[in-house]
Amino acid sequence: MIEELSIRDLGVIGEAVLPLGPGFTAVTGETGAGKTMVVSALGLLFGERADTGSIRKGAGQAWIEGRILVGRDGVVADRVREVGGDLDDAGDIGDAEVILSRSVSAEGRSRAVVGGRSAPISVLSELGSALVVVHGQSDQLRLKSQSAQRGALDSFAGPALAERVTEYRSLYESWQAHSSEIDALVTERSSRLREAEQLRAAIDEISAVAPVEGEDAELADLAGRLTNLEDLRLAAAEAREGISSETGDGPDTVGLIDAALRSLERVAHHDTALAPIVEALANASFIVSDISTQLASYVSGLETDEVGELDRVQERRAQLTVLTRKYGPELSDVLAFTAEAEPRLLELDSDSDRIEQLSALVDDEYAELTRIADDLSALRSDAGERLSTAVTDELGALAMPNARFVVEVQQRDDLGSTGRDLVQFLLRAHEGSEPRPLNKGASGGELSRVMLAIEVVLAAADPVPTFVFDEVDAGVGGASAIEIGRRLAVLARSSQVIVVTHLAQVAAFATNHLRVEKDQDGPVTASNVVQLAGDDRLAEMARLLSGLPDSESGLAHAAELLSTAESLAAARG
């Protein structure tokens, strides 16, 4: 809901603040005072294309600001936060206030501010599509597309249709996903066959070698030992000879330690201080003897290596190297490749079975979709007849007694995301004429009344925060104008309604009456906006009725009209 609209230097309006708020706001004024600038200001505020010709003569820029009441957790609030804008506390739980502004310079530059943060003009358009619907003689924005008309009909149809639509959409998404998978499998069959052949060859090559985790490191160690076998044997033999000589030609380490140990043992009982030294020598003798045994075993093992083993090791390493170059760089990568390739090959080899399974599933889903689509068509056709009757009845009271509103529901051959129905709103403006699309079957003023009739009928099922009507009363008067005013008042029970009007019969039903006043100051006309109440409103109503704001008969007629409107509103409330 728009709480307040501020305008500066737009058209003939120098500076004006429009208090709006809930309910039905009527905007009146003399011809040329700038009433339509109110609609233009709202259009600019919500992202319409700017026209530098609308900037007030002599001004550098036009500026519009709106204080908007929104749900704190709704889509509008979320979008404001996404662009970095701030939401102010509105006092009521669940509500927040956001300030939007738009400036247009004489050079054509345009700037938007959302919640105190600069934003693209497109953001204003996004917010406007969720907040405001404008119905003017030249621009009927709501329900313009067939998809919007189908959505409005679905909302009018109620929960029974909504449940079936939800069921249909879920199944439709599944059907599309499975159909796309089939298409991909068929389209990519050649490439998938090539991939399967490549994987099969790779798996066969790796399986033939049968590598084992860590085998490459073990073979590298073994190859190093076999390559240097004689050097290793000689070094180990020399080391063992030095520790424990078998030839007896010279002293060895074991003999020297044992001799030292025997010398100390003979005298150790004379001094206890020698005890730990004797124990250490005994341990050293044991350790050195053990090393000698290990070296003997090592030399013996080297001497038993089979002839040709090095060639076998190098050949095995060469096989592993081929694999790591292709699928590595490490042997662990080769094994990981095999672990991934085997299930992928199984998947590729089962393409034919998968296509067959998917085809059966797609056929079943399509049959079910067709059945639900038929149900949707029946529900929409029934709702279309009810909507047609209700809107046609409204048109009869809006000075269009011979008009007939038609909701056409046609079925396509193919299925879409909402069924197979094409929904179109048509208008037969006169007896004997053919129903035509709304924007082709009525004049601007008639179209505004048609949209009013539709909005009144849809109000409960498809609510909109704010409606703006420009010259909805064009070409009517008397009792028909009173009916227009009454229906606007009905619409204002569920939405904010702003109406630019020149008829007292319409303005009489307003809960908030604004007048655009012009002041001729030399060659420049300046206008501002005032809120009317009491005698001031009565005088404006008299002016609308008779052209004379202070005529006694006009004032009496105006008072009677206001009383009648109040009674009608109360009686219908």
UniProtKB/TrEMBL annotation:
Keywords: ATP-binding, DNA damage, DNA repair, Nucleotide-binding
The UniProt record lists the keyword DNA damage: yes
SUPFAM superfamilies on file: P-loop containing nucleoside triphosphate hydrolases
Record has Repeat as a keyword: no
Domain of life from the UniProt record: Bacteria
Domain RecF/RecN/SMC N-terminal: 2-522
Residue stretches in coiled coil: none
Assigned protein family: Belongs to the RecN family.
Function: May be involved in recombinational repair of damaged DNA.
Protein name stated in the entry: DNA repair protein RecN
Organism: Herbiconiux aconitum
Recorded name of the encoding gene: recN
